């Protein structure tokens, strides 16, 4: 063994040289850590924290934006709904108005048509009456002539008997018409006058 | 030649001299032959393999740390992750949580302490080194002395010299007649016991750990070579050497951590006035 072992040195008594070597070694490590390693790690930690916080902030901003957009859409939707309801109401009112207008128009039209029909009916009745008057007169004279056995035509034409009779009839009808209940024989004409 | 190799030679010599018996490795384990010797300003320097191991461990740790922070990224790579884990363990677990809110400025010092002890302790089980420089009392003593200076200096700086020493001499909240007993204990504790225990705890753990490993390893070799029935116990001894290596790994981390945590609590006492 070495002579050191022979002396059996006390391990708790450190040589000064070793203490200085230890100081230097630790000093160098500490210098590197304090000047280089620790600041870098702190920088990384800071960057990481910022990245995480930034991410959270970004997410919050996006959430707020989404919420605002949703509210906007909902407001727009409500607006659109009320607008649609308004339009519907307006349309219904307009439709009602148009319908009434049309009804009035139709009524007017129908009244006009009825009036014209009545007018035509009246004029054609007059025509028919005039025609019938002639024919009935002729027919009555004819029949009377045959009954009598001779032609009464000329005489009848001369005297105007038939016309007088018919005028009498007409007079009766005209007298009956104002109270709405004419003679049975002239009821057709009375209705037409109405 | 290492001292362990000398011991191994002693063990192997049993073959030629069967009556010699097992020569247990002794204190000379920690006193290897100097590789170089010189005197500077009246101080004798001995460069032994343990000194070289100290330098290798320190440089390796510096290289690791620098490599870990060379290109720092928010999403760390493997090396940066390991470095960060160690740094955070000390920064958050000790500087922030043990010392308190004022602790973060001490993080670089505590981190250096932790990594320096860890690197040197790890040399205890790294092949071909297999001895921790911390089993040389000088190195733990240096660290403990630095700690001693720092926590007293911080105490004076943070609380003022009067307040700091008064609180140590007359612990607040203690009945007056008890000061006869408490004051000497407190003085001894703060200025002598604390640094001494810091240094001795680390030194003794690494010293004893190395001795255990050497005894079991050499024992296995001896039992193989002794040439009688003892050979059946050789695997037991070898297995024990392996088991103790794992145990040593635990001690390596634990002692580095314990040293740093204790320094944290001392700094806590200096930063915050006693209650």
TrEMBL record, chain A:
The lineage of its organism: Bacteria, Bacillati, Actinomycetota, Actinomycetes, Geodermatophilales. Residues 172-194 are annotated as: Disordered. It is found in: Cell membrane. Belongs to the ATPase B chain family. The gene is atpF. The keyword Phosphoprotein does not apply. CDD domains: ATP-synt_Fo_b. F-type ATPases have 2 components, F(1) - the catalytic core - and F(0) - the membrane proton channel. F(1) has five subunits: alpha(3), beta(3), gamma(1), delta(1), epsilon(1). F(0) has three main subunits: a(1), b(2) and c(10-14). The alpha and beta chains form an alternating ring which encloses part of the gamma chain. F(1) is attached to F(0) by a central stalk formed by the gamma and epsilon chains, while a peripheral stalk is formed by the delta and b chains. This is ATP synthase subunit b.
Automatic annotation (TrEMBL), chain B:
It is found in: Cell membrane; Membrane. CDD domains: ATP-synt_Fo_a_6. It comes from the Bacteria. GO terms for cellular component: plasma membrane; proton-transporting ATP synthase complex. The chain crosses the membrane at residues 47-69, 106-131, 137-156, 202-224, 231-258. It is a multi-pass membrane protein. Coiled coil: none annotated. Keywords: ATP synthesis, Cell membrane, CF(0), Hydrogen ion transport, Ion transport, Membrane, Transmembrane, Transmembrane helix, Transport. GO terms for molecular function: proton-transporting ATP synthase activity, rotational mechanism. Key component of the proton channel; it plays a direct role in the translocation of protons across the membrane. Belongs to the ATPase A chain family. HAMAP family: ATP_synth_a_bact (MF_01393). This is ATP synthase subunit a. It comes from Geodermatophilus obscurus. The lineage of its organism: Bacteria, Bacillati, Actinomycetota, Actinomycetes, Geodermatophilales.
